[in-house]
Prior knowledge:
Layout: H1 2-11, H2 15-19, E1 26-27, E2 32-35, E3 38-42, E4 47-51, E5 60-63, H3 66-86, E6 91-95, E7 101-105, E8 114-116, H4 130-139
Antiparallel strand pairs: 1-2, 2-5, 3-4, 6-7, 6-8
Amino acid sequence: MHIPTMLLYNTGMRVAEVAGLRWQDIDLKQMTISVNKQIRYIAKDKKYCLTPPKTRSNQRTFTITPELVGELSSWKAAQAEQELAYGEHYVYVYEEPDGTIRNMSKGLPNGPLARVDLVCTRSDGHSYSVDCIRKQLNAKGYSRGIDKRCR
């Protein structure tokens, strides 16, 4: 939970935006993050989807600190090491054409799914849900210090 917490505190991103952040949205050389996706739970369909932010103005690009660049660079390298360590048990995140995300073990998925390289994953590759991030923050008492729009 270190990286989601760092992103929340250092960027002001919403929890759903942090959960949906992909490596392609981060330019470590230019020190920028582009927010153009979020993970939402669609209650009526009982599924998680990768969707654009609620409004067009929520799609934005901003500069990040050198410290956060360092943390993200280290985490990207750690993810690659963990993928090798878990081998066939590593879980990848895939997106269906309708935006539904699925956690699937290594191997080719059935159907027209696109692999999504999320920044905020567990060590075994599973994606974090928005609720999981919120519960961790609340359990550690962080939520009191986070801007209300991030909850």
